[in-house]
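Bumping my old thread because nobody answered last time. Still need a sequence for this structure:
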């Protein structure tokens, strides 16, 4: 038997609960792992609360990522005792995920835990940190260097935003952090932000072209916020879009793109090549200030994941949450 968060939808029972399950109930896969830690990302919050129907089959164990030890493997890439990470590939949405003490998955979804990174730090980063790294890599690929100008990070109080601020400042960029919680200014400056911008400056409808400010952007919010960020980009500025906290819509015009050459890069963190995943995680291992990461992270037991997911969706959590599935 093992413990797991289980989301059910039936005539007898509906919603999430902490359950005890048989290992024989695990779905198909060629690698079985004992999970050490998982984490809570925005998508996990949506899955557990049901606010957006991201879960595509029931019953479902949520948790879009985990750090674990291989117990059984018929995949030639892994053997018993290997330390691994998983994020994405629909895990926690249409395949049982990481908010459990055991998981069974396809070995092709796994990568080795990078040297120099603990399992707890891997989940302090989680999909949020991995996504932030993909955004930074996309800015670099498009030639956005620190000398080009200021970078804005929206939703900076959240997981993606906080890690993005931490990474960008460590790499020498000047970072402006946008947040709806002005009381978090000292926290964000501690991560490396030079400027704090109130969310309301970006969250309402704005003009198609506005005063230029930014050389690059990491946006985890979408909707009017993303549109306003695009309208404020410098010539040839680059915006990376990875979230939808404000909404799926994009009420913008083509003006920034055809008059200023702004580039909008979508960041898909769910389905990426093994090479991209490995590069992103290895760079996180080298470039994250783990002391600062610890300062933006708290650990909860598996039994606290449902309540924490509700707080996450309600905007009551800053930074990152590690889930210790053994408790």
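Sorry it took so long. Here it is:
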């Amino acid at each position: 038997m093992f413990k797991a968060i289980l989301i059910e939808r039936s005539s007898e029972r509906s919603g999430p609960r902490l359950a005890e399950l048989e290992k024989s109930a695990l779905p198909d896969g060629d690698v079985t792992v004992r999970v050490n830690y998982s984490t809570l990302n925005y998508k996990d919050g949506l899955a557990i609360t049901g606010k957006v129907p991201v879960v595509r089959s029931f019953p479902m164990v949520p948790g879009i990522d985990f750090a674990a030890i291989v117990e059984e493997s018929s995949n030639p890439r892994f053997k018993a005792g290997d330390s691994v990470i998983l994020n994405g590939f629909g895990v926690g949405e249409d395949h049982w995920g990481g908010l459990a003490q055991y998981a069974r998955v396809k070995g092709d979804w796994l990568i080795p835990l990078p040297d120099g990174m603990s399992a707890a730090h891997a989940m302090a980063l989680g999909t949020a940190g991995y996504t932030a790294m993909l955004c930074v890599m996309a800015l670099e690929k498009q030639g956005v260097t620190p000398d080009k100008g200021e970078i804005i990070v929206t939703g900076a109080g959240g997981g993606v935003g906080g890690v993005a601020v931490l990474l960008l400042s460590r790499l020498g960029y000047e970072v402006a952090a946008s947040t709806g919680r002005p009381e978090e200014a000292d926290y964000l400056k501690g991560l490396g932000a030079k400027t704090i911008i109130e969310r309301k400056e970006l969250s309402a409808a704005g003009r198609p072209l506005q005063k230029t400010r930014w050389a690059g952007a990491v946006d985890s919010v979408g909707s009017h916020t993303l549109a306003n960020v695009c309208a404020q980009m410098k010539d040839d500025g680059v915006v990376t879009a990875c979230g939808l906290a404000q909404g799926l819509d994009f009420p913008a015009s083509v003006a920034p793109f055809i008059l200023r050459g702004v580039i909008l890069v979508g960041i898909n963190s769910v389905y990426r090549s093994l090479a991209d995943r490995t590069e992103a995680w290895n760079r996180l291992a080298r470039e994250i200030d783990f002391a600062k990461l610890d300062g933006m992270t708290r650990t909860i037991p598996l039994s606290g994941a449902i309540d924490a997911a509700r707080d996450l969706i309600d905007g009551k959590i800053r930074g990152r949450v590690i889930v210790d599935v053994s408790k």
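The domain at 2-113+296-324 is CATH 3.90.180.10 (Quinone Oxidoreductase; Chain A, domain 1). Let me know if any region looks off to you.
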